Amino acid sequence: IEVSAPVQTPFPFSSLVLSANFSAGEGGSFLLEVQVRVNDKWSEFYKLGLLSPKIKTSFPAQETAFGHLETDEFVLAHPAAAYRFRMKSSGGAQWNLLAACGVRAPFEYDEKNAARLPAGSFAKEITPISQMELKHPDRRRVCSPVSVCMILNALGVAAEPAEVMQHVFDPTAGIYGNWMFNVAYAGRDGVEAYVRRFGSLAELKDFVTPGSLVAASVAYGRGELAGAAMDHTAGHLLVIRGWENGKVLVADPAASQAQTVLRAYNAREFANAWLNHKKGAAYIVRKK
Questions:
Q1: Which residues contact 212 (CB under 8 A, 6 or more apart)?
Q2: DSSP letter at 160?
Q3: What span, in angstroms and rounded, lies between the C-alpha atoms of 82 and 60?
Q4: Do 71 and 59 touch, CB atoms closer than 8 A?
Q5: Rg of the chain taking only CA atoms, in angstroms
Q6: Looking at the DSSP assignment, which residues form a beta bridge with residue 93?
Q7: Is the pTM of this model over 0.85?
Q8: Beta bridge partners of 251
Q9: Which tens digits make up the pLDDT trace of 80-121?
Q10: Beta-bridge partners for 68
């Protein structure tokens, strides 16, 4: 068992997501827990995930006076100022990357600056995959693993949707979109991956590059994202591959066919769907 030193955050936070990249042999496993400090009191440790090469699982609902765990995100009852990890490894499992990502409390959306794109233009080539074309009963719920698959392929790591889906599925929650499990799977073979929050599209210049891509979590209502692959969504993941002429270039796995996966969305509308409605949540996947 290994406990990290307390990490004092630069701002109070209202929620926390952890990322872990790990390596383990056939029988190795890795349990990741977190606790937070509110005022001068530490919470209990919350179990975030059990990771192994064969299975990844979250844990049933955990709730105390400090907050509650929503599968992969710890939502606090009151803003915290520090956190620390506890790691339990067995069978020679080792962690290669540990990261935490919080939402500033109170959350504020700066609409004017949020939609400002980086200067110039950039486009990363991506081989499109439509989740809707998959012959799988859950194809409408696999935007996260399909986005990870497209990113890995674009970074030179061969991946197939079925394989990614199998490795990121969370049997406790019954979902494919557990953020922690998706970045744990992506962070391998010379690649690292973690969850990050963005506040402005201008930040993309450091993360959408020849060796790095971003999978963004978006939510929008009818008419809020012109030309979108889905009419509306409470939560969906897609790949940001570049920008040009006031547009965000994406690979949207919800497109009905592979040939319509690559799209361009209005920067202001996209910023609202991602940076406002989903508080800028994203996976960063990049070559080491």
A1: 155, 284, 285, 286, 287
A2: -
A3: 24
A4: no
A5: 18
A6: none
A7: yes
A8: 239, 262
A9: 999 999 999 999 999 999 999 999 999 999 999 999 999 999
A10: 63, 75
